[in-house]
Write a structure and sequence with these properties.
It comes from Spirosoma fluviale. The chain is of the alpha+beta class and 337 residues long. It is built from nine helices and 19 strands.
Length: 337
């Protein structure tokens, strides 16, 4: 009997309670463009009701203010007091008032900065093994990969400017506005991307810093040493950064493979087991411990669908004649005999 994909089934799927057969039915159903739109609509509604990340800035600020009311000295170890002559320990009343005022000003300044960051920016975050679709106020779409963070201004976005900050990895589909306003993706890796309307992927992962352009045109602004440089990318361009920040530009015939993770697909092309270990660490927070140095250089090619780290490891082990054991957050991999 064919499984009918309903709203209730999709909600079960989003909550992680769908069976393997139900997942397969949803995969087939979502191949249709109209179905995908419906999928994303229900996903957005589900995420509003079940937020995966809630910033705790307000709670932290309230705790901080409570500590200040109750006395900050409770948070610290009382220092040892060395007895001296009484005259040496007395402070002039004017100095005492100045020190109290300075302390209060410092506390208010820190509290204000802490709260302003929360008030001015909305932060989206994904945990290990999680992806998330975000629709921005200007109509652009961003899909966050696992273990990633996107920061978006709460006010003036799309009118005054369109600048977001990314840590991790994300795929962008940018809407072109009538006034040709630029869209800027800032990173913490000494490069940023300037676009008008296009589709591209950005990764700021420590080992795999890269930008892949699917359609349109973007301008990459980066630093090599102390020098600022610019590079205009064309569709199919792949830019990577080495550990010293040097740029390498090449062409890829299939840029879409770099965002296959949006569909829970992993595409490997002569990818070493050591490189796959980096993926497990960055996307799932797991260490892949390879027992043999030669085994670390084994290469794997093919496309594999997996929704969890366990599913991906099981698929790779079956396809590559490997065995593995799980110990906490470590997966020990060896060759089958």
């Amino acid at each position: 009997m064919k499984i009918q994909v309903s709203k209730e089934l999709l909600l079960t799927y989003f909550a992680g309670r769908a069976t393997a057969l139900q997942k397969q039915a949803i995969d087939e159903w979502a191949k249709d463009e109209d179905s995908r739109e419906l999928f994303y609509m229900h996903l957005a509604a589900w995420e509003r009701q079940n937020p995966q990340f809630i910033a705790d800035d307000r709670n932290a600020l309230e705790r901080h203010q409570q500590r200040m009311q109750n006395g900050v000295t409770r948070e610290y170890i009382t220092p040892t007091v060395v007895e001296e002559e009484p005259a040496a320990r007395l402070l002039h009343p004017g100095w005492l008032r100045w020190m109290i005022a300075a302390s209060i000003a410092t506390i208010l300044l820190l509290s204000g900065l802490f709260f302003n960051d929360y008030a001015l920016y909305r932060t989206y975050h994904t945990n290990f093994g999680q992806t998330r679709l975000i629709k921005l106020p200007d109509g652009s779409r961003v899909t966050l990969n696992a273990n990633s963070t996107l920061r978006v201004p709460r006010f003036g976005f799309g009118t005054k400017s369109r600048k977001v900050s990314l840590v991790g990895e994300a795929d962008f589909s940018i809407r072109h506005l009538p006034d040709h306003q630029r869209f800027i993706v800032a990173t913490d890796k000494d490069f940023e991307i300037v676009v008008l309307g296009t589709e591209f992927m950005v990764s700021t992962r420590e080992r795999t810093k890269k930008v892949v352009l699917n359609t349109g045109r973007v301008q990459l602004v980066y630093k090599e040493g102390k020098a600022s440089k610019q590079l205009t990318m064309k569709p199919g361009n792949l830019v990577t950064f080495d550990t010293k920040g040097r740029v390498r530009l090449k062409h890829t015939s299939h840029p879409e493979t770099f965002t296959s993770w949006k569909e829970h697909r992993f595409v490997f092309d002569r990818t070493t087991l050591e490189e796959i270990g980096n993926l497990f660490e960055e996307n799932y927070g797991l260490e892949l411990q390879i027992t043999d140095k030669a085994l670390a250089h084994w290469t794997i090619s093919g496309a594999f669908r997996a929704y969890t780290a366990e599913e991906l490891m099981e698929t790779l082990a079956t396809a590559s004649n490997l065995t593995y054991t799980v110990q906490g957050k470590t997966i020990i991999v060896s060759q089958s005999h």
